[in-house]
Request: fold
Amino acid sequence: MTYAILWDLDGTLADTTDLHFLSWQEVLTQEGIDHSYEEFMDSFGRSNAEILPIIYGTELPRQEIARISDAKEAAFRRLARGKTVALPGVRDWLARFHAAGVPQTISSSAPMANIMVMVDALGIADYFWALVSGFPLPKGKPHPDIFLRSAAAVKVAPSACVVFEDSIHGVEAARRAGMGCVALGERMVAALPTIVADGLGTPIVAVNSLADLSWEQFVSLTQPG
Reply:
């Protein structure tokens, strides 16, 4: 069976969660807004256009969303240069799929400028057939658009794609796209019973980290039916 691997970036390939929190804090402090880590994690993985009305508790003009979002992403890129670290198991799995000729994409909600900074910092550009940013899409995760666009980019059917994700919103997006999913992190392991109760029926495996994922678990996501 021909399949493709669609990688989320932040929190999946690279340990950037705290860098995103710090960049939001920096910008929101200048705006006079308190934003806790718990509030940040509740919306992590969604687009800035969806996050900002949640933070402010009201709809914002498009220009205001763009202004704050641009400032946040510039702060993130400044913090991320030289501080982006691959998570355990990432390089082994990237190399394994690459050696087998499996199409791989980065499918991230981040702006393309952020993706390029992190890919360059990690030195992993050669592994990917396509870099796909969901930033310009009208609907971010949990809508499936970014993963459907990624599947089209590598000319593989959605049902033959496996998504690697670390957020609830990203996992939901993958399942709504009809794709198998590796859900990463302790929060995903704890949430697995709730996730599989969503009625979508697509295959999913949850592990604490990629270093814990077995080949047999991965293969179970690529089997039809």
Observations:
- The mean pLDDT is 93.
- DSSP finds ten helices and six strands in the chain.
- The longest strand covers residues 104-108.
- The beta strands are 4-7, 104-108, 130-133, 161-165, 180-184, 204-207.
